[in-house]
Amino acid sequence: METFRTFLDDLRDAGQLVDIHKPVDVRHIAALVDQASTALLFHTVRGYEMPVVSGLLNDRGRIALSAGCDYAQMERRLGHALDHPIDPIEVGDGGARSWHREGAAVDLFDLPVPVFSEFDGGPTITAGVTLAHDPEYGLNAGTYRFQIKERALTGIDIVTPNNLRRLAEKALAANAPLPISINIGTHPVELMASLYKAPLGRNELAIAGGMLGRPVRLGACRTIDAPCLADAEIVLEAEILPTGWTRQEGRFGEMTRLMGDVHYNPHVRVKAVSRREDAIYYALHMPWENIWIKEHGFQAVLKRVLDAAGVTVTAVNVTPGGCCHWHAVIAIRKQPGDPQNAIMAALSVADLKHVVIVDDEIDVYDPMEVEWAMATRVQADRDITILSDARSKPLDPSLPLSEGIPTTAKCGIDATIPDGVPKARYQRITYPHADELDLGAYLGEAEAGEGAPEDGSNVGVEDAAAAIRGLLAGRSLYFSEIADSVPGAGLQSVARAMGELHAAGDIDQDAEGRYRLVDSHRGLR
Fold first, then answer.
1. CB-based burial of residue 485 (10 Å sphere; 0-12 exposed, 13-18 middle, 19+ buried)?
2. pTM for this structure?
3. Where are the domains of the chain?
């Protein structure tokens, strides 16, 4: 069965996890992970009994390994899970977490929680998969940050509108706390599914089950009326207090790769901590671990809304330059009107801000290809769509300062080949015989006895001209096609023969540059 521990073993076997046994200061972990090309497991953290692992998911290959597929299949795997969810099952307490403290014995400062930026407001739990149960909407899962403030008190970063915020607002209206479990050290698929923007009432853990091919295991908490993830390394049993959005929080390093502002959030009281005796603390590294794991979720949603809009999508790249959140490049198999439909549908997705629509022969993962399409296919006054006053994410630093939840402008660019343009205007440069040749065969010293090469022609100019007339009888050909089709003739002989035919007025070219014969009595053939 896949667990957090089995994933660490998989990473280690793949050479994607390095075990560090030298003592390390917890303040140095973030910087060391930023320098690493693998995930890092720090076995000895000064002043703490617990090891720390970080950087697990800041690479597409490691994300794919967690799901047991190639990264290119991640969106398809998620799409299948959305259509075939598997509901979680209850298994009691799971049996793995034998260490338990509650009440006055809770001390969050015993956890080796790093500070990720020199501007952070303090140690912050970043990989807390949070479960809440609502009588009306059922189980909700999401991942949030919890800045530790006191031995048993944190904040919870739920500024942006989301499902947990709605449940917290509902509890606040009743002046009641909202029970939550905070699960640290879970299988990455459970973490990634919790970040999927499912509508309220849709169980994100059922999506995780669909991706894993088995039910997610739920355990029982001792002090709150909410379940936990049975196989988590650490579980915090807690309540979102009915303080409302009145307590200062932050700053945090954000998925924008920038520092966020100080803002206001509720407080969370931790009532109990349970963990494995040999628990490993997982510190999700900001920003890239947070950025990469959202990409395929946006891909899946975009493909679904575009399918509903009747647009045939061949590829979607939710770009890392756009923090895998704000920018998408979408390749389509174009029919008239499809680019505009694709723009409108794509910009309806969550906080997506800018979208570029390209033809299906453009590689959406190649920035130069995309920029080239924009440079050669876009007229700004015709192909750019701007929408005002759309839903926004407060993290966008380009927005004006305002109270409450801001709105944003969204932009769509149609970078497909304009309708009605001759095909020849967008015919790419290709090189004759490119598929047959290997530069390696020509590198190095020449063989002894090799001199100046001959043209390779066994055909005279007159015979080549006659052969060309035969080739062009009733059809048009490009020069390279002619050069390859005269048996025994080299390029020089063909070029001379073409020169003779041109001088005689026997050939000219059509609109696409192909050569054809000219009949002086009947015009063009």
1. middle
2. 0.72
3. 78-285, 294-424, 439-445+454-524
